[in-house]
Structures are given as structure tokens and as C-alpha cells.
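Notes taken during the Thursday session

The instructor put the following on the board and asked us to keep it in front of us for the whole hour. The protein is Ferric-chelate reductase 1 homolog isoform X2. We were told not to look anything up and to reason only from what is written here. First, the residues (222 in total):
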Amino acid sequence: MGRPSRLPAAWLLVLVIAVLSPPAPWRADSFSTGAPDSACTSMKPSHGSNAPQSSNPPFQITPGDVSVDGGKKVTVTLATATPTGSFKGFFLQARDSNTSQPIGTFVTDQYKYLTCLPGFNNVVTHPNPVLKVSVVLEWAAPANYDGEVAFRATVVQDYDNFWIGITSEKVTVKRAAPAEVPTTTTTTNAPVTSVPSGGGLSGALDSIYLGCSVNKGCFGLP
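Then, after some discussion, the predicted C-alpha cells were revealed:
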């Protein structure tokens, strides 16, 4: 009976690495269904040890207006800045220019919402890694907010290349004026009492006292 064959040392090393290494599918779909809620603050995707690009981003954010009334909507476009550019993933929100607090609500039926407290549906991200050249969204300003916001985004070109902190020009939000309450005026007319002609009661009393102290005596006189 022959001795069992030994695995070469190189193959043994490969086997050990394969057993100890974590599965790799996360690399392919780490950004396939959008950013997680944990990205609210850092806006950084979980792409292993990869750092964001420091070069000028080949993407831009363009608001449809530079001012909007509270309670109204404004269009926001995230797009490539080059004719041949594209991207797979994004994370977009509006932030107060002074406090960096998320502001407002997005309106979309094509992309995926995230909620970064405080607020609701105040972030939009991609639902799949399909290549995109632009994303057009609607953003609703809060009715009771008065100040400036800027739209900020993280854009993922591929697993190894992504940019964070892409910022739009500022948009001024004017607080909505309070609704006017209609006033109702009620006029009450005092009842009118008719006085009989001919002197009325006073005239009747005067006739009773005619002749008093002349040819008859009357009670009630001084």
C-alpha cells in the first residue's frame, strides 16, 4: 500500500488563504442597492480601504432655481460634467449651509429614499448599479424654514473611484407667509320705535290739564 500523496506547499498556502479569507461578493455589490443609513453623516461608501478621490469631481449638481418659497419644490439635477462620463451610484441630500443639518424632503418614484434624522425622506440614493449620466429629482423646501441650503452628493463611478462632498451653489429658502384668516363683520341695528304724530303721549297729557286752576281743580299740579 503506497503512502498518501502530500499537497505541495504552494497549494497548501492557497487552501489556507481561501479558508481564512472572507467571501468576496461584497466587492461587486457593495453599492448595488444604494447607500446605507450609516452614510448619513460621513457620506462615505463602505468600499473597503479605498479612499475617496481627491481630484476635481467629474460630476456636478445643478438646482433649477437659486431661490424657492417655503413649501414649494425645486428641481435638482446630478449629472456628469464630461460627455463620456457615467456613474453607478449616488447619495444626495440638502443641508443647511450653516449647520449642515439635513433639510427638506425629496420627491421621486424612480430612486430610493433614506432618512437622516431629523427629518424624513431627506436623502435619495440609487436602487441599482445601472450606469447613469444624470439624475433629475424634485426637492420640497420646508414651509417653516428660512435660510440657505446647498445640495451635497457622493458619486460612485466604480468600486475604486468615488467622490464625496460634491456641492451645489446655494439655494435661498424664504419662509412661507402665514395664511390670512378672513374676517367677518356683523352689524346689529337698534330697533326703531315710532312716535305717534301730534305730540304723542306728551300732547295727550297737556290736553288733560287744559282749564286747570281756571274753571276746574286738577290733581298733579304743583
